[in-house]
Predict the structure of DUF4276 domain-containing protein.
Amino acid sequence: MNNIKIGLITEDDTDWNAVREIIHRVLDSNVTIKKWTSGGSVPKKKLSRELKVLFNKGCNVFIVVQDLDRSLNGSLKDEGTLRSELEPLFSVVNNFSKHICIPIEELEAWFWSDSKIIKEIGGEKCKANPNPHQIKSPKEALKKLSIGKNGKPSYGTNRNAELAKKLDMVECSKYCPSFRELVKFLRSL
């Protein structure tokens, strides 16, 4: 597809910046990406409207990144249910390429698949996790891993874009289905 203009909807700026870096790595740094962040879970009531706004700004590809959160009892919510709630909201852009990316719990789980990133955050003795999708609160786990001798964490989500630039996409694709499907979608454009 020539003249790709992507409408990217995420929960917050740090997720948007990280996914933008992944898109640029897979496609090209010249690909135009329009932004909408919700400041939390993507509100289903606003999604159709925001997709239409992005369409009116010239977007011809649409990506929504929505974390698969935990329920009050601590278990992960059902990915199929979330996907089936989001898919009908894409009807306003039905004739265009679209993708729903659902990272298990948080996209920070993707970083747990890469041993170099984990060592950068936590030191040489730290290792990547072959099951990053099973880490409870991966963002908090990264912060905890990064606590230095001063007792303060060196990791913050403001580093996500920087880490996304370095992320081993082959390893992450092996262990993180949501990442693998996002890359597959991008390569199909």
